[in-house]
């Protein structure tokens, strides 16, 4: 059976190359090289791809991701938190609202505060020197209402900038830090050891996507300021770019169904979780591949 690619937003003049549904493949089975290449080509073109009605164990989800690059492990962060984890592998991130015992998290649970940061527009692991490339989020249990994930197309957002703005931001470097994004939610009490484990990193504000050769913004909630500009000026510039990039014409909301696997390309999109009744279970699990290098070592 061959993979069928159906663009989701073909009626959008500006968004036709953003989000596609891929059907005709069972991801639990060993991926063939031609299938891998077709999926990669779809990701390069559409940045977000959706597979419906999949049945995947954590191991199968990890095995599938491994075809697309080395996996970002959470071991580094987990080590600094003395909390019980529900999932056994460091290669899969628990994006649920469940605690280590599988119960809905208490309002003040430490991991809940981390998890709430997913509600801010962000791009996965941009606060690491070698950031995230592809994130693959699989839905085990979803609430009946709410809890969509929204995606913003940072290539289309870049294309739509006035030429003067493109010239202004060309070559700029932003500092990214997980502590900056957590601080936006008033989560600030970290140990010196935690802070030292993830120091701020520089990333390009504009980069070229290696798969599509399209220019794209690379910003979001971990980006705190611009290197070489006064902090308020850089922060305001970033806020303006975020506001521009999150206009509805660049944004797609994914309504989850159990069995969905959604892949997004962190190199050219932002995403955020939307609210839902958090007394209900939402069990999503994510595997993320590592980019090849810091954006500073990649093409501008
Ligand atoms: C993530 C994430 C958003 C969501 O898994 O990286 O940000 O809707 N998830 O759960
Ligand atoms: Mn995320």
CATH fold node name: Double-stranded beta-helix
CATH superfamily, called what?
Clavaminate synthase-like
Estimated share of beta-strand residues: 15-25%
What is the residue-averaged pLDDT?
94
Strand order of the largest sheet: 1-2-3-13-5-15-4
List cofactors, ions and other ligands: N-oxalylglycine, manganese (II) ion
Distance between the termini: 39 Å
Number of E-state strands? 15
Order of helices and strands: EEHEHHEHEEHHEHHEEEEHEEEE
Largest sheet: 7 strands, mixed
Q: How many individual domains?
A: 1
Name the poorly predicted regions. Answer: none
Kindly provide the name of the CATH class. Alpha Beta
Shape: globular
In CATH, the architecture is 4-Layer Sandwich
Protein described:
The chain has 300 residues and is α+β, with helices and mostly antiparallel strands. The protein has helices at 33-46, 58-66, 75-78, 110-116, 154-159, 163-169, 178-183, 192-197, 231-245, and strands at 4-7, 20-23, 48-51, 93-94, 132-141, 149-153, 173-176, 201-204, 206-208, 215-217, 223-226, 251-254, 261-265, 269-273, 283-290. The chain has a single domain, classed as Clavaminate synthase-like (Double-stranded beta-helix). The protein has 9 helices and 15 strands. It has a 7-stranded mixed sheet, covered by helices on one side. Strands 12-6-14 form a 3-stranded antiparallel sheet. The longest helix is centred in the last third of the chain and has 15 residues, at 231-245. The chain is globular, with a radius of gyration of 18 Å. The protein starts with a strand and ends in a 10-residue tail after the last strand. It binds N-oxalylglycine (OGA) and manganese (II) ion (MN). N-oxalylglycine binds at residues 95, 118, 124, 135, 137, 149, 271, 273, 284, 286.
């Amino acid at each position: 059976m061959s993979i069928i690619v159906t663009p989701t937003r073909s009626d959008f003049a500006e968004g036709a190359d953003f989000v596609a549904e891929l059907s005709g493949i069972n991801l639990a089975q060993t991926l063939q090289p031609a299938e891998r290449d077709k999926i990669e080509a779809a990701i390069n073109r559409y940045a977000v791809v959706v597979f419906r009605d999949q049945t995947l164990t954590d191991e199968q989800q990890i095995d599938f991701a491994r075809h697309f690059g080395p996996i970002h492990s959470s071991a580094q962060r987990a080590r600094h938190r003395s909390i019980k984890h529900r999932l056994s592998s460091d290669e899969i991130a628990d994006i649920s609202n469940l605690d280590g015992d599988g119960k809905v998290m208490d309002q003040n649970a430490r991991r809940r505060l981390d998890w709430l940061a997913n509600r801010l527009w962000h791009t996965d692991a941009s606060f690491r020197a070698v950031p995230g490339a592809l994130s693959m989020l699989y839905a085990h249990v979803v609430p009946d209402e709410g809890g969509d994930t929204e995606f913003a197309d940072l290539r289309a957002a870049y294309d739509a900038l006035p030429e003067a703005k493109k010239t202004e931001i060309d070559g700029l470097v932003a500092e990214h830090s997980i502590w900056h994004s957590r601080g936006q939610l008033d989560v600030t009490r970290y140990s010196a050891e935690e802070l030292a484990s993830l120091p701020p990193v520089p990333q390009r504000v504009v980069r070229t996507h290696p798969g599509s050769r399209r220019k794209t913004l690379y910003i979001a909630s971990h980006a705190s300021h611009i290197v070489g500009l006064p902090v308020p000026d850089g922060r305001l510039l970033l806020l303006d770019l975020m506001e521009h990039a999150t206009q509805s014409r660049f944004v797609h909301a994914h309504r989850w169904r159990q069995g969905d696997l959604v892949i997004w390309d962190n190199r050219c999109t932002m995403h955020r979780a939307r609210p839902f009744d958090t007394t209900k279970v939402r069990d999503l699990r994510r595997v993320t591949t590592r980019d090849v290098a810091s954006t500073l070592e990649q093409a501008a």
